[in-house]
Every structure is written in structure tokens, then in C-alpha cells.
Write the C-alpha cells for this entry.
Amino acid sequence: MANKNLKDNRASFWDNSTRSYIVFMGILAWLTASVHGISEILQGNTPTGGFVLTTIGAFSIIPNYLLTGMATLIVALSLVIWTTGYIHKKNGPTVFLILAILLFLVGGGVAQVAFTPIVWAVSTRINKPLAWWRNFLHDNIRKQLADLWPALFAMGSAVLSIGIGIWLILLPPDVTHNVSIINYICWACIAIGFILQLFIIVSGFARDIENHKTIINATQTPR
């Protein structure tokens, strides 16, 4: 009975922080890809003129803007559905990687190339014991990182979202403009947000390890 309770608890709480990070990144990928998809559709039923869509900031193997945009929206929706509902399943990370690669190939944008390998690698740690991290992080450091995770997650997510939002909305790739304060703000937010992702991931691992210890202790406590 204790093992069954542990299994049920793991289904609800195990890797909660890690999975939350993956879900956020999946939603962010969906939003950014959707902006690209809508921009492609607005180009109309016209040929792309090549694989690199310089006016969109994307790459596509489909030689038509309208079809590219439709494919982007469909794959982006599939990606966010899979990420939010199935990433923790047995083949969740593999399917996620396939969808992310497909999204890039059909016009979802080039920026995701920097984040996809990281997100995929982290997703493979869902439902894993994280033994290496348990040994690497000292107990006190692990507890401190676990406590910091909510603040790091909120701050890192906000800064990265602001940077990507500025990039997509205020700095479209087809507009020639001089470098301004907006560019520096955008680059700074994306750079800081990217760096904070690393702290979010490590602190998330620490928090999941601590949560797992709590669940184990709770199931072993005599009633």
C-alpha cells in the first residue's frame, strides 16, 4: 500500500519544478512560433523564394508562405499540447524533440534552436532519480536552491519573455533600422533570461529532490 501511495504521489509531485519549467518553455515556443505563423499567412498564397524566410526570420522547407504559416500553427499547437500534457510520459522527450525540429523546418523561427537542446535535455530528467545532482549538491546548498526556485523561475521567465516579446513585436527582421536603446534592452533581456534558465534548471532539480525526500518520509512515517 505504501508503494502504491508513493507512486501516486510521484505522479502528482515528482519533478514538479522540472516539469513546470518545461511546460513554460513549451508555451513560450508556441507563442513565438504562432507569431511567425501568422506573419507567414499574412504574406498570402505566394512562393517563399527559398528556404530562408528573411522577412519572417524563419526557415521553411515548404515553398509557399500560406502553407508554411498553416503548418507552423498546426505543429506549434501540437507541441504545446504535448508539452503540457504528455512530456512526462515514457517517450515524451523524444516526441517533443521531433516536434521542435519539425517546427523549425516549417517556419517556426530560428530562435528556438538555442533553447530546444536545453529544454529537451531537461525533459529527459523527468521521473528520474537525479542521483548525480543529489550527490553533487550539498544538502544545505540544495535546500537553499530549492527555496530560491519560485523567485528564480518567476524572474527568469519574465525577463526572457520580455526580451523575446520586444524581438518579435518591436524589432521585426524585415525592417532596416539603426541600433537603438530598444535593441540593447532586447539583447540584455534575452541574455540575462538565458543565463537565468541555467539557475532555474539547477534549482528546480534541487527542489524536486527535496520534494521527493518529503514524499518518501511521509510514506514511511508510521500511522
Remarks:
- Helices lie at 2-13, 16-42, 65-85, 92-105, 116-123, 131-136, 139-169, 181-220.
- The two ends are 13 Å apart (CA to CA).
